[in-house]
Amino acid sequence: LPLVKAPSSPSLSLQAKMSRPVQARRLEGVDKNIWVEFVKLAATYSTVNLGQGFPDFPPPDFLTDAFARVLSGEEHMLHQYTRAFGHPPLVKILAQLFGKLLGRDLDPMTNVMVTVGAYQALFCCFQAFVDEGDEVIIIEPFFDCYEPMVKMAGGTPVFVPLRPKAPKDGKLMSSADWHLDPAELASKFSERTKAIVLNSPNNPLGKVFSRGELELIADLCVKHDALCISDEVYEWLVYDGKEHIRIASLQGMWDRTVIIGSAGKTFSATGWKVGWTVGPNRLLQHLRTMHQNSVYHCATAMQEAVAQGFQRELEHYGKPDSYFVQLSKELQQKRDQLVQSLVAVGMKPIIPEGTYFLVADISEFKSDVPDVPNSDEPYDSRFAKWMVKNKGLAAIPLSAFYCGAHKNNYNRFIRFCFAKEEATLKAADDILQKWKLEKTSP
Amino acid sequence: MLFASRSFCCLGIRTYQLRTDLLSRSIRLSASDTMAFRHKNTRRIEGLDSNVWVEFTKVAADPSIVNLGQGLPDICPPSYVKEELANAAAVDRLNQYTRGFGHPSLVKVLSQVYERVCGRKIDPFTDILVTVGGYGSLFSTIQALIEEGDEVIIIEPFYDCYEPMVKMAGAKPVFIPLRHKKGGNAASSADWVLDPAELASKFNSKTKAIILNTPHNPIGKVFTREELQVISDLCIKHDTLCISDEVYEWLVYKGNKHIKIATLPGMWERTITIGSAGKTYSVTGWKLGWSIGPQNLIKHLQVVHQNTLYTCPTPLQEALAQAFWIDYKRMDDPDCYFYSLPRELESKRDRMAQLLQEVGLKPVIPDGGYFMIVDVSTLNVDLSDVDENQPYDYKFVKWMITSKKLSAIPLSAFFGPETKRQFEKYIRFCFIKKDSTLDAAEVILKNWNKQ
Fold first, then answer.
1. Nearest CB partner across the interface for A270, out of B96, B239, B308
2. What does the radius of gyration of chain B's CA atoms come to, in whole angstroms?
3. Residues A83 and A132 in one domain
4. Average pLDDT over residues B188-207
């Protein structure tokens, strides 16, 4: 009889390995991402994109000129590695500026670290400070990456919502009408609370936390010895004479706060991906450890250009021609323009005190997108998808900024980005007006 | 306490730690003591704070030092590369976010270049991830695919970040050294080899991956097809992944060929191949790299990426894409930068080797990469009076920087804890340096014995 070689079967341990998923467990539950889906939809269908948060106008001339200068210069070492924790001219100017803003002497080498956008700064914070078993308080609605980042670090996100109070009769709601309930907030702190994430000015609502609200949070941080991860990327975008207050400047907070900032938002250059952290060396040393074991260096040339941009702003600080002053003035006008458009057609905007986002209630337009009972998808998400496909107008559903369990709590709102040219806002207005006409005409 | 009883179902060390945590919290400590405790680092970065680069780049930053230490070119990148960045900087829409997993024009040209090299179809959107340098690719790969309970084989000497990254992922690094062939002329990188039986003994059911670096930093070894076959056979037998760090892929010298392990049978589906713009185009400060592999692996790297930094800078990616198109079109031409750079570097390699030989040293001539290692024992520098509890090569390099104004990197930084002391007489020089830098090094080396 011919010898038949029996098929070799893998050993038991190999079988066990083959049946295990190849990916690490830390990726469980963090694979979904709203932007991947919505950015694609906007790219495919939108004629007017008020969805993803980026300006469609250029960064200021002095910044692009600085970049061009940097690249045309003789200094070819700008194409090579710079200091890993931040290009010296950049950390020096950041230390100068934030030292001034915080009323403190900052050491550029130990109190500042540059990151690949504020996004990577957030990542370093969670990885450096959140261990399995730690809880992190996240205020809803929140910039969506906080939740998966906490989870990836093995932490447990604990959510506390901003709750809207009805505005005075006849007035439009403002982001200032959304508050934390002090008792509710206090109840979220426990022995396991490692940190709270604060985002002020807040994306997506545009809320600018008041001194009283910050003091409430600060008191709880001190009482429970929690850290504060303070995402202040929109720090320069505050309207109506409001003041952006830095929680790190409050009593007892400097030692326990990491402040996060972004050149992308400061200088309308989101594609440059330059961000930073500012804080006490005691905390930043751990961010440095994380950074040196993950990306290590950030791109040199853009850091040099951003440093020059800040140099210019420091010289013009507080003056009318300061970019920070001009940008916020310009954006306030755009905010008001979009608010007007929305009100005219029956969408109810919540006036943001800051950022370049505003959230609007689309209940009046419900008839266009009928409810689907028992649908897994929150209403506003279905609405936003329908709107971009049928009206060419892209926006982001507010439910994207809530945890899974709370996605249906505020599902009649969508978020618009108004950091857009005149022509874009006009085109949005045209779409909205036409839409309204279609609804009202027989 | 409810919390306490729930956590006692954890095992071993964690229970102990939690118990002491709870105990110490219940004792009234001073505010600053409590703060110091609560605000300490996470377990994942415990012990990962020191870093050879942080130590040595600072020391060598003094411009009067001839810096042959850190691996960064002081030669100019090609002019068209700089021009493309200047062009990209002038395009307004490139100042805003691009596609998270990689700028479309960049991933498209990468897929073209690598399709040609690998001889297989590569989907730009599912098989490629653009990252912050080769470093970022290593991090994304390890975070995506490695976890507690896994073992990862690391070949010594190794690019130093492999060990802390594997540890940060909670896994155990398992080391295997390259050794000089007995009777071979250890003066070539080719003579540093893995013992196949020893390598096989490192694989077991826990082995999740092996990290391969070819061309190799610091030795400059270019693994042969036969050597890669040994590794791939073991990967297939044990169903192990291969993380192939090929950042120096174009820098191979005459008589050598860079072979991608992913092109060996059975390997594409289990390999992540890492590349680097910094090394390809002599622009380390651009910090762009990429991971290429099958969709079912790359998708997990993409998940890590979307939760770590989301997207890489746009203008740099566009410029890199344009530079790649230029060279892609001339991949049959010897003037292509992928071939002209190694030609340029080969003469620098030979010069560096000669300078070291003239001082009586026996450098290991690399077949690839831009580093050269050398045993400095014959120089007989007595550092026994230097107090520091550091390996000889750390002390030697520090001494050489201060007294000879020449810097290098100590090789023991590239070894695991058990083998460190065996290689403490070796240092690493980087030779991707302009002529005037090598001239200055020559002066120092020629005058070495004069005091």
1. B96
2. 23
3. yes
4. 96
| Same-domain pairing of B134 and B273 | yes
* Structural domain total, chain B: 2
Mean pLDDT, chain B, rounded, equals 90
User: Looking at the structure, do residues A50 and A188 belong to the same domain, yes or no?
Assistant: no
Measured between CA atoms, the residue of chain B closest to residue A32 is B303
Question: Are A258 and A279 a contacting pair, CB within 8 Å?
Answer: yes
Whether A190 and A226 share a structural domain: yes
What pLDDT digit, counting tens, does each position of B263-284 carry?
999 999 999 999 999 999 999 9
DSSP, collapsed to helix, strand or coil, labels residue B413 as helix
The minimum CA-CA distance between A37 and chain B, rounded to whole Å, is 12
CATH number at A241 reads 3.40.640.10
Domain boundary (A254, A288, A316) is at A316
Structural domain that includes position B186: 79-329
Give the tokens for residue B214. 């070819």
> Which residue in B has a C-alpha nearest to residue A284's C-alpha?
B41
pLDDT at A442 over 70: no
- For residue A16, being part of any structural domain is answered with no
Final residue of a structural domain among A288, A316, A344: A316
Q: Do B94 and A271 touch (CB under 8 A)?
A: yes
B412 interfaces chain A, CB cutoff of 8 Å: no
Query: pTM (2 decimals)?
Result: 0.92
Residue B139 to residue A295, Cβ atoms within 8 A:
yes
Please name the residue that has the structure tokens 């100019």.
B76
Instruction: Answer whether B169 touches A (CB < 8 Å).
Output: yes
Beta carbons of B132 and A283 less than 8 Å apart: no
Tokens representing A23 are 């990916």
Q: Note whether B313 and B210 are same-domain residues.
A: yes
* A405 and A280 in a common domain: no
Parent domain of A357 = 30-59+322-440
Rounded Cα distance, B382 and B149, in Å: 44
A10 pLDDT band, cuts 50/70/90, is low
Verify that B293 and B419 share a domain, yes or no.
no
**A44: exposed, middle or buried (Cβ count in 10 Å: 0-12, 13-18, 19+):** exposed
**Tokens, residue A226:** 């929690």
Residues 175-214 of B with CB under 8 A from A: 205
- CB contacts of A30 in chain B (<8 Å) are 303, 307
Count CB atoms within 10 A of the CB of residue A386: 14
Chain B residues inside the 8 Å CB shell of A271:
94-98, 311, 313-315
Residues B301 and B323 in one domain: yes
Instruction: Please tell me the distance from the alpha carbon of residue A209 to that of residue A189, in angstroms, as a whole number.
Output: 19
pLDDT at B1 over 80: no
Omega into B157 within 30° of 0, i.e. cis? yes
Q: What ipTM is given for this predicted complex?
A: 0.94
Same-domain check for residues B289 and B386: no
